[in-house]
Each structure stands twice: as structure tokens, then as C-alpha cells.
Amino acid sequence: MKATDVIVQCLENEGVEYVFGIVGKETLDFIESLSKSDQITFIPARHEQGAAFMASAYGKFSGNSGVCTSTLGPGATNLITGIASAYLDYSPVVAIAGQAGLDKQHKPYHQLIDLVKLFGPITKCTVQVLDNQSIPELIRHAFRVSQMEKPGPALLIIPENLAMEAAPPKILPILPKSSTQPDHSSIAEACKILNECQKPFVIVGSGVIRQEGTDQFIAFTENLQAPITHSFTVKGIVPKISPLNYYTFGFEENDLVLSGISEADLLIVIGFDVIERLPKDWNKNKIPVLHIDAHQALVDEFYPVKVELVGNINKSLKEMNAQHIQLKNWTPSGNLKKRIEQTYQIKFNKKEISHLPLTTENILHVIEKVSTEQTFLISDVGAHKISIARTYQPKRAGGVLISNGFASMGIAIPSSVGAKLARPNDTIICITGDGGALMNFAEIETAKRLGLSFIIIVLNDYVLELEKQMMNKKFGTSSGVNFGNPDFVQLAISFGIKGVKPQTISEFEELLKSTLSSNELILFEIPLSQ
């Protein structure tokens, strides 16, 4: 059997449904083998970066590894931003890149660069196939590694000459994911310090969702009755109406929840990825920490761990919930929860909607008003990302996809393609600034070609607003942040999709409601009120 046929057979064994990418000379055999599969669909993207973003979002929303492919040289380097994003945002991805034949790699060759060295720092594993006998083993390893906590990308490099040669049709069994749980002495010590403290504060991150610990987390916090704050990527894990919900933290400035954290005598940090915000930014008082995560704590002076429960979070919390934990029932001073709600515009008076201006926050309130538990919001990167993190409250855990690790502009539109393929029956709404939109706008053609339906909201203000704010704060003026834009409605129409441009918040709400019931691919251009 040809090597690429074996690769496809192995991918089918892994349950792969889609491979995103662009065809190149060195991947012709692989694409031809994919075309014969009854299980896997190859989806040609318009840019390899978009393909990697699609695979990453598919991995996030499906729980399986998303797969993308490219040829050598510029095709592979175009993957880098999306692969780096998967690496720092903990998305399970397996990338397959073509490469020059082994007989050509000992000297300079057209488009040849060392992909092992290039991708090594941004993957959990990168390996070039040197012997076709190893293909089944390497593919199984790539998928297993990509899905292990914390998830991330793996890259398999296939030299052109090996792709065409024979390989053994061996299929390796898929083993259950392994997990550990803390020992009883650690559980006992954790319960001891919990019962001794008076003012615990819970900080939760997306590790809880990745390890399917949401239900146990809710039970744990209801037993404890302590205030909770969450990172950008885990929005929705605490219901909006919960009195324990102190909303999102991790902002550069005006992070009001930090005043509540500073009053605590114990921080219970569960599944938090420090890449979202280093402890020195939110634990300046060096409050003792109870660390609950799959990995050991990265201890420093601002993260003084008193006890750590290392193991599967779901199992750890289940063990904790079986123990006696004293209710705390404490509230941070200064009416903090109300101040957060007012400052971050979390509450919304629905009766006044017709008089409100077109601002990012008001757009988010309308989306929140009409959304359901089956609504997923995907954020690009820019000033609107901060507004989404502060203001928008989804109706389910993980109801917002925010890149808060690599945080690459241009991620929203291609991610919506991957998300919709992973969750075809759910509503996908992506919000992007005008800057990020045009970076991967061509992937609208991909979505249209696939017959996908989701909503694209382009916030148009002709400026990189977040950079403008930072420059004004630092220098008192800004430069290099303004640009011209096309007519986004006409641009959408040129791609064969509907484009609308509401002028009022009421018009936006009516158009959004009608779009949700029409099940179509549509772009909203929102001229932001200055």
C-alpha cells in the first residue's frame, strides 16, 4: 500500500472528519489518497494560516484533534501563526506537512527549510518520517500527544519520495486517555486549609472545561459559597445570575476584581493557565494558594502554593466534594460586585434599547439578549476582545472562544468555519474588528463554498483601537494605527453572501433576530459610534 494511503487509513482510525489545507507539489499523493476516503473530507482553504485556525477551532469545539496540511517552504511557514496559536491556546491539532525528498535535503534545494527546527518550539512534538515502517506509530503518537493535557499541536513531516513508496498497512489501537488523581493525604490537607481559612477566593481557568470538570466545579463552589472570578477563556462557567460570580479578571488596567482578591486569605486556583495572566499581576499581596490542576504549580513568590492537588481536575473536585467543607459566605467590601457590573456594563436595561448608540458593549448586550445555550461567540483580537471579556455573559461554560494565549488578529473568520463544522447544529457568531477581518477575509469564500451558516460582525472604526489607546496612554498621541477600508457590505456581496449595515441598535437587533431564524451566512458591518 502507498504510504499516503496508509496515512489516510491511520487518520480514519483516529476518527478524523476533515483535513484543512492547500495542495502543493509535495502533498499531491496525500491529497489524492484523501480523495478516496469515504470518511474524511479535504477542505481547501484560501491560506494555510486560515487552515490552521480552522483546525484549531475544530479541535476546541469537537474535543478531537483538528487536522491541517500544507506543502513545504512557504506553505509550511504560512501554517506557523495558526500552529503557534494552537500551542499557546491549548488546542489539539495535528499538522501534516510535505517536504523535499530525503535525497535532496543534504544541500540547498528549492523551497527547502528545516521544518523540524522551525516548528519545534511551537509544537508538542515535531517529527520527520525517515522510514515508512514508522508511519502508523508516528501518527498515533501525534494524536495522543496533541490531546493530552494540556492539548496542543503536533507536526508530522512527510518527504516527497517516501509519500510515493510502499508502507505497511498497520493500524494501532486507540487507548483511553490516561489521568491521575491526588492522593488522600493531599485531599485531607486541602480540606484542612479550606476549613481554617475565612475568606477564600476562587480563580478558575479553562482547564476545568478541558477536563470535563464543570459540574463538579459548580458543586464545589456551591458548597463553599465563596466569590469566584474567571479567566477570559472560561466565560460562562459561572451563571450570570449567581451571587458568587465576580466575572472576568486578567485585564491590563482597571481590573476591579483585584481589590476583592486582595482581601482573601486563600486563593483557590483551579485549572488556570498562567499564560492568560501571570500571578505577579493579580497576587501582589502573595496570598497563599490552593492549586488544583493536572500539572504541578509553577511556584514563585507571587504564587505561594500551600497545597496542590495534581491530577485530573474532575476527579480532584469530585474527591473534594465528598469531604466536609465549611460554608464561608463572605463578600468583598465596597459593594464590589455592583461596581464591576456598572463599570464593565454587564447589566442591560432592555427598555431603553431604541435610544442607545451603536457601541461594542451595546452590540454585545443585544447578542446576549437573543442568544441561547446553543450560541457560541468567537472573538477576534483587538479592543472588542476586551469588551467581550468584560461585558458579554454566555449562557454556558465555554460559550465564548477567545484567543488569550497567542492572541493573533485574523483568527475569528477561519475559526468560525472550524467551529461550525464541529457544531453544525449550534449558532456561531464571530465578532472582528476591521483590522482583523481583512487579514483572513478570503476564508468567507471557503465558508460559502461549504454551505456553512454563521454570522460575521465587523466593527468598523478605521483604526486599530487597542493600539491607539495604548499609544495615547504612553505618548499622549498615536500614529500608524489608522487606515482606509472597503465597503464591507459590497465586499460580502461580491463573495456571494448577504451583507447588511444597520444604523441603529434597534435595527441591529431586528436584523440579528431575522438572521438567526434564516440560517444563512451573513455579514454585519457596524459603523461604531465614536
Fraction of residues in β-strands: 15-25%
Distance between the termini: 63 Å
* Overall radius of gyration: 24 Å
Mean pLDDT equals 94
Write the layout of secondary structure elements.
Layout: H1 3-13, E1 18-21, H2 28-34, E2 41-44, H3 48-62, E3 66-70, H4 74-88, E4 93-99, H5 115-119, E5 125-128, H6 135-147, E6 153-159, H7 160-163, H8 184-196, E7 200-204, H9 207-210, H10 214-224, E8 228-230, E9 245-248, H11 257-261, E10 266-270, H12 279-282, E11 289-293, E12 305-310, H13 313-321, H14 336-343, H15 360-370, E13 375-379, H16 383-391, E14 400-402, H17 412-422, E15 427-433, H18 434-437, H19 443-450, E16 455-460, H20 465-475, H21 488-494, E17 498-500, H22 505-518, E18 522-527
Parallel strand pairs: 1-2, 1-3, 3-4, 4-6, 5-6, 7-8, 7-10, 8-9, 10-11, 11-12, 13-14, 13-15, 15-16, 16-18, 17-18
Condensed summary:
The protein is 38% helix and 17% strand.
What does this structure look like?
This protein has three domains: 3-163, Thiamin diphosphate (ThDP)-binding fold, Pyr/PP domains (Rossmann fold, 3-Layer(aba) Sandwich); 184-338, 3-Layer(aba) Sandwich (Rossmann fold), CATH 3.40.50.1220; 345-527, 3-Layer(aba) Sandwich (Rossmann fold). A six-stranded parallel beta sheet has the order 2-1-3-4-6-5, with helices on both faces. The chain has a six-stranded parallel beta sheet with strand order 9-8-7-10-11-12. A six-stranded parallel beta sheet has the order 14-13-15-16-18-17, sandwiched between helices. With 530 residues, it is an alpha/beta fold. The radius of gyration is 24 Å and the shape is globular. Helix 10 runs parallel beside helix 13 (313-321) and helix 15 (360-370) runs parallel beside helix 22. Helix content is 38%, strand content 17%.
